[in-house]
Every structure is written in C-alpha cells, then in structure tokens.
Amino acid sequence: MFRKRSAPHGEIGHRDTARLEAFSDGVFAIAITLLILEIRVPTVDQVEGETSLWRALIELWPSYFGYLISFLVIGMMWINHHNVFKFLVGVDQWLLTINLALLLCISFIPFPTALLAEHITHPDERTAAALYAAVFFVTALVFYALWRYPTRRAPWLLVPDADPKAIAAITRRFSYGPPAYLAAAIISWISPTVGLVALAVISLLYLAPALLGDPVEPSPD
Amino acid sequence: MFRKRSAPHGEIGHRDTARLEAFSDGVFAIAITLLILEIRVPTVDQVEGETSLWRALIELWPSYFGYLISFLVIGMMWINHHNVFKFLVGVDQWLLTINLALLLCISFIPFPTALLAEHITHPDERTAAALYAAVFFVTALVFYALWRYPTRRAPWLLVPDADPKAIAAITRRFSYGPPAYLAAAIISWISPTVGLVALAVISLLYLAPALLGDPVEPSPD
Amino acid sequence: MFRKRSAPHGEIGHRDTARLEAFSDGVFAIAITLLILEIRVPTVDQVEGETSLWRALIELWPSYFGYLISFLVIGMMWINHHNVFKFLVGVDQWLLTINLALLLCISFIPFPTALLAEHITHPDERTAAALYAAVFFVTALVFYALWRYPTRRAPWLLVPDADPKAIAAITRRFSYGPPAYLAAAIISWISPTVGLVALAVISLLYLAPALLGDPVEPSPD
Amino acid sequence: MFRKRSAPHGEIGHRDTARLEAFSDGVFAIAITLLILEIRVPTVDQVEGETSLWRALIELWPSYFGYLISFLVIGMMWINHHNVFKFLVGVDQWLLTINLALLLCISFIPFPTALLAEHITHPDERTAAALYAAVFFVTALVFYALWRYPTRRAPWLLVPDADPKAIAAITRRFSYGPPAYLAAAIISWISPTVGLVALAVISLLYLAPALLGDPVEPSPD
Predict the structure, then answer these.
(1) Which of A109, A187, A210, C216 is the Cys-Cys partner for A195 at CB 3.0 to 4.6 Å?
(2) Residue B103 to residues A57, B8, C27, D16: CA-CA distances in angstroms?
(3) From its phi and psi, is residue A213 left (phi > 0), alpha (psi between -120 and 50) or beta?
(4) Which residue in the set D9, D107, D123 is minimally distant from B36, CB to CB?
C-alpha cells in the first residue's frame, strides 16, 4: 500500500491516481454516452398509418426525460469525482475497491433509466420510478464512502497540506446526498412525477452549487 | 474556483483542464464510434428472394450518408474543442457546466442520425432532416457559449499571454456556426437533400479551414 | 525494440507504457460498461397480464448475477494489470502482442456473460456455466504470460530497481489464477451454482487480497 | 499551424499530439470492443427442440472468425498508429484530417464484420468477403497517407533527430499494406475462404514482424 513517505520510481503515487482517474473517466464517459442507445427511433412502419413523426417523437418524452436526468446525475458525479481526486496523492486497495463499487453503480444506470422510460405512464410506473431513484441513493452512499475513507481512515492518501476546513465543508455537502436521494425514492413511490422532479433538482444543486453561493471547489490551500 | 493567481499543489489548474479534456475526448470518441451501431446489416433472409446483397447495401445509402455527416460534425467539433482548450489554463464550475451541455448534445447525435436514416425517402423525411439539422444548431450554440464564456466573462481561465487578435478571429469563425446550421435546418424543412448537402458543406468548412487560407489555429503567442 | 539503455527523445519508454496502459484502460472500461447492455429491460407488454414488474425484475436475477461476476473479474483484472505495469519501464512487440491477446479475452467477456444469463436455469445451463468459467481460465493464462514475459524473458523492460522478492511474490499470486479458474470451470460443468460461487470467490480474493493479510502491492523499492 | 520553432506555453506541440493520440486510442479501443456486440447469443428458444447449445455455438463460427480478424486488424493498426506518432512532435490541420479519415475507417469496421458474419456460407458470401477486405484496403491507404504526409510533406512535424533510414524502412513496410489488402479483396471475390486466410496472414505479419527478424520499431535515434 502507498504511504506518502515513499514515492519510489519518481511519481508512482501520482501515476496511480492518474490512471485510476483515467479509468474512472472512461467508465463515466461510456455510461453517459450509452444512455442514448436506449432511446428507440420510431420506425417508418410505426409512423405510417394515422400518426405523424412529430407525434411519435413527442410520445417518446419519458425516454428524453430519463436520458436527461441520468445524464445530469452521471455528469454531476463525474465532476464531484474529479473534486475528490484533487485531494488525493495516492490510492490503496480499499480506495480502488470503493471506486470500483462506484463504477459498478455508474455503469448500471442505463438499465434503470431504460426501465423508467419503458414503464412511466404505465401501470408499474411507481415501481420503476422508485427503483430508478433508489439506484441513485445507493450510488450516493458509495460516493460518500469514497470521500470518507481517505479523509477519515487513510489520511496518508491526502495531499499533505489539505485544508481541514475545506474537507469538512465537502463532507457536509456530500453527506446530504444519500438522505436526499432516499427521500426522492420514497416520494417517487408515492408520486413518480414529483419524485423525478426532486431527483432533477437534487442533481442540479450538486452540479451548480456555485450559483447558490456555496463554495464549490474549496481549493486545498 | 480557480484563479490564475493560485496554483496550489503544482499543477492543479493544468490537471483540471487535462482531465476535462480527457473526459470530453472520451465522450466524443464514444459518440463517434457508436454511430456505426445504427446501421443495420441486411440479413440473409432479407437478401434471399429477389434482391441481391449489392442492392440491399445500396439501399442503405441514407444510413451511410447520415453516418458520414454525423462523423464529420463530431470530428470537427472535437478538433475545435481541442482548439478552444489550447487557450485555457483552468476551468471553473460554469465552464464545466457549459462543457457538460456540449457533451449532452454530442452524445445525443446518434439518435437524430438514426432518425434521419430511417425516415429519409419516406413521407416524414422533412421532419427528420430538419430535426437533424436543428440538433446541430443547438450544438453550435452551446459550442459558441463554451468559447465566449472564458474569453469574455472569465479571462482568468485563459492562458496569460493569449493574443486578443487570435481570440477575435476565432470568435468570428465560431459566430458563423449557429446561423449557418439554423439556415441548414430551415432549408432541410423545405428540401431535405439540399439541406443535408448544406450541413455537410458547413462541417467541411469548419473541418478544413486551412484549405481556404483562413488561419486555422492561431497560435496564442 | 526498447532497451532501458536508450531513452531517445526524452521519455519514449515512458510514453510507450503510458499509451499502452491508456489503450488497455479504454478496452477494460468499455468492456465493463457494455455488460449492462446485455440486460434486457422487461417491456410493458411482458409485464401486463398476470405478472408484476417486481416479479419480472426478480426473474432477471441470472442477468444481474452474470453482470456482477463479470464486472468483478474485469475490474479485478484491471487493478492487477495496473499492478503489472508499475513494474514496467518499456514495452516491446512481444509484450504488445500478449497484451493484445489479453484485451481480446477481456472484450470477449460480454458474450459468455450474456450466454450464461440466457441459459442458466434452462437445460443447457451446465454448458453455459462451464464455457463462462473457461473464458476466465484462458484470460488468467494470458494474464500470467503478461507477467512472466517481462519478469523472466525480458528483464530490460522492468524498472531498474525492482525487488526480486516482490516479483516472486506476485508470480506466486498470479500462478494460482489459471488452476483456480480451471477448477471453477470443471465444477461449473458438474454444478453450475457451486461453480459460479467459486468464480465469484476467486475474483474477490484477487480483488481484495489486502483483507487477507496478503501483501497486495509490494512496492518495488 | 505548428512549427517546431515555436512551442509557446511550454508544451503545446506535445499536448497536441498527446491529445490526438488519446482521442484516437479511444476510437480504436471502442471499435475493437464494440465488435463483440455483433455476435448474437443463441437464445433458449433457438436451442430447445432438436439442437444443443454446443451445436448452436459451433454454428456461430463465422462470427468468431470475423471478430478475430477484425480484432487483429484494429489491434495491429493501433500498434502501428502508436509507432507513427512516436515520430511526431506536432500536428497540423492536414494531419488531423487524415487521422480523422483513418478513424472513420476504423469505426466503420464493425459493419462489414457483421456483414461478413451474416453472409458467409450463404449465397452472397463472395460479395460480403470482398467488401470486408476492401474496407481494409481503404484503411491501409489512409494509413499510408498518415505516414507519408508528415515524412514527405511536413517534416517540421517530425522529431528533430528522426533517422532517415528508420523512416525509409517504415515507409517500405507500410507501402506493402494497400496492395496486399487489395489482393486479399480480389482473392476473396474468387474464394472467400482463401481471401480471409490471406487477410489474417497479412494482419499477423504486421502485428508480429519481430518474429520474422524484420526491425519492428526502429528507434529514431
């Protein structure tokens, strides 16, 4: 395992975090781009007959909606993943494992997204919406662990002069994620529409905290 | 947020732009490569009977055409994205958000591409072609914002010695994009064929400006 | 071919391993993310009638199970690939070729995974499970070659001060992989359930050796 | 355009080639990994009845064969792309454009691969095999242009001390590619089996020239 005391062969610690970031970026980028494959193009046969292409495209709105929320969530998680790694100078097996669990969640997202798009406005929409939000709840939990492990249990993985106040501020921010997504999942079970709007709002808040005067990227100096 | 005054821990600013570029490159690369999945291979059953494989492949021309234009547009946008980032030394939350909106557009492109390939030469071809061009119009708008935000509103994100004349030249170039794609969308609504040719021409002009004597990559010195 | 004596143009050796790692990371990241595409979403038509969405989702358990094991294996192989490359300062044509063979195995994994998910609990489940495990056996063999070639046949590709004891420890660890996966394949042929559990256990052991007190990443100093 | 005389802002030339390599690597990695999606898993319904899963899997041999050859070709092209870029210190708009054309070819490969797998052993197999080989012919032509442009027309993009003899040796090697693949295409039209074996042999020769005593990676010093 890496200790900050030892940096054999020049920059092994830096190469480790760099390669883990690159791999994670790959998974984030692929998951976010695969989402589009779940939106099925209306065929000529479907459109011929009474309906028009416009109407067929409008009827696909659940697909666009799920696409948009999932894109937001994955994009927002990528940005925050990037913020977490700014504080790290090395990785160990535990961090690798937590990060892998996070990537498992991220790469799973296209499935509940397609499930939501298929079942919204149909009898099982509450199930689909609640499961969709629940996946984000689990993802937020794993994300929280990714931040807590180095900051609380493995401080030798942190940049040497990380500001404790900045770390505490981020910990607070990230700690809101799991309960917020859990609430969205419960609301989705009661009213899918309200729950999905809540999901979108939570994700936008994490995406653009600067707009709210919240310190976004407390620089570690 | 990043200010050029502070570069704690060595190269955080550089790592930020590098990682954003890498993530964006990932999305561009995946979107450009996924396009091929939308071209369906003629099956043995379809070909057996009266037609031949040659004929079946030729009848797929709308798919090749859409594939080619979308490839050109994504490739051209990638090159220009690369040119934009040469002027940046850091990123802030706004730039991240605009860039995410651009990636949303880019990763959406396979959908209108498949829509175009499915409906061209069918009754709804005008709708499909106009929507296809309209997606590029929106993408060009977001791209323009990606350039205008750092150059006009957040100059501390720029390389310190960026040449104002080079910036003005690029601004001019990029400002032609949105109206040109909007015109292509309107033309596509009237005549899909003419509109699609216009799309291809616009994209080629942005791809190979060097051929026209236009300064392509004004180096910032 | 690269010798450590010559590093023309600054860092060619380092760029080589860096680019090979980046390409490999890309293939690992894509293969691990494509797995989700193999899980088919239950449609509204399937669910309407007597069954519920919950039941339909629960009946997909073989898909989740295959997804999870394949994710584990690819993730674990990625981490170990990363550990192998920490010992390398250069690559030659043989290493490139062995690495390409490994990537062939990794990118093939979505196929047996889908095969397993389709056939488990059906008459041919023993065939599907044994083939699934056999693919991991072959992958482990190639992985072993990737480690043995530089450490035994091409030591000039290794970091100059690599610790022979660390290398011997990793060699021992990696040498258990092929027989373990072969055993899992044979067991799968007799009892798919036991075999798949064995597969999961082997992969977890390689993923989290730190938990067992085994030295995970013997640093080469 | 970049000249080697000017390297403003530190390493812009290096960053350019690095980012182009990274983007290209992404497309190569995705194309090579997407190939597997074209192999359709035999379903339980197909297998039930008279045939067994083993037989169904064996009948998929054209898919495996196409998968393997395409994997070899893309992998081999990636390695050679890597060798080309070792000679470059910068890129200009022409090189970007030629490289984009190469990526267009690479990302197109999954389509003729699926076409081959579908039609081999069926009436149109000669057409499918000849087209498959023809795509590699075009790819080899573009690849040759990617090498010739900097070495002949834009020497300022080359590493300053590139050895003319090494360049001449590579030029010779690469010049065999287009005629060899053209011959394979013509042979495929006459006899698909012989043509496909020729394709595999050509690609293996380019992949493992070291085995034949041919200097693989003439280092530029």
Answers:
(1) A187
(2) 22, 29, 21, 21
(3) left
(4) D107
Neighbours of D, requiring at least 3 CB pairs below 8 Å, are B, C
Q: Please state the separation of Cα A77 from the chain's center in Å.
A: 4
Sorted by sequence, the CB contacts under 8 Å of residue B94 that are 6+ apart come out as: A210, B149, B153, B154
Instruction: Find chain C residues with C-beta within 8 A of D82's C-beta.
Output: 16, 19-20
Distance from the Cα of D160 to chain C's closest Cα (Å) equals: 9
Handedness of CA A181, A187, A188, A194 (dihedral sign): negative
- DSSP letters along D43-86, please? PHHHHSSS--HHHHHHTTHHHHHHHHHHHHHHHHHHHHHHHHHT
CA distances from D87 to B49, B79, D84 (A): 53, 21, 6
Interhelix angle for B12-34 vs A61-85, to 10°? 150
Tell me how close the Cα of A217 comes to any Cα of chain B, in angstroms.
6
pTM score, whole prediction: 0.86
Residues 6+ apart with CB under 8 A from C195: C129, C130, C133, C184, C185, C186, C187, C188, C189
- The residues with which C158 forms a beta bridge, in sequence order, are C88
What whole-number distance in Å separates Cα of residue A167 and Cα of residue B113?
45
Instruction: Give the whole-angstrom CA distance, residue C32 versus residue D22.
Output: 19
Contacts of C9 (CB under 8 A, 6+ apart): D159, D161, D220, D221
Share of chain C above pLDDT 70, in %: 86
Q: Which residues in chain D are contacts of B158 at CB distance < 8 A?
A: none
- Residue D158 forms beta bridges with which residues? D88
Residue A37: exposed, middle, or buried by beta-carbon count in 10 A (0-12, 13-18, 19+)?
middle
ipTM comes to 0.81
Token pair for residue C160?
A: 């100059």
- Indicate the range of B48-52, B169-173, D19-23, D203-207 predicted with least confidence: B48-52
> Which of D157, D19, D12, D16 has its CA nearest to residue B161?
D12
B-chain residues within 8 Å CB-CB of A60? none
Tokens for B27, please give them. Answer: 């999305």
Tell me the Cα Rg of chain C: 20
Which of D25, D36, D219 has its CB closest to that of C6?
D219
**Which of A43, A208, A210 minimises the CB distance to B118?**
A43
Which of C11, C20, C36 is best to mutate for the A interface (most A CBs within 10 A)?
C36
CB contact under 8 A, B110 and A36: yes
Q: Are the Cβ atoms of C123 and D48 closer than 8 angstroms?
A: yes
Nearest to D23 among B28, B35, B44 (CB): B28
Judged against a pLDDT cut of 70, whether residue A4 lies above it is answered with no
Token pair of D183 as six digits: 């011959």
CB–CB contact D219 C12 (8 Å): yes
What percent of chain B shows pLDDT beyond 90?
34
Question: How far is it, in rounded angstroms, from Cα A139 to Cα A184?
Answer: 13
Instruction: Answer for the pair C126, C156: CB distance below 8 angstroms, yes or no.
Output: no
Contact (CB<8Å) B93/A22: no
A36 chain-B contacts, CB cut-off 8 A: 31, 34, 107-108, 110-111
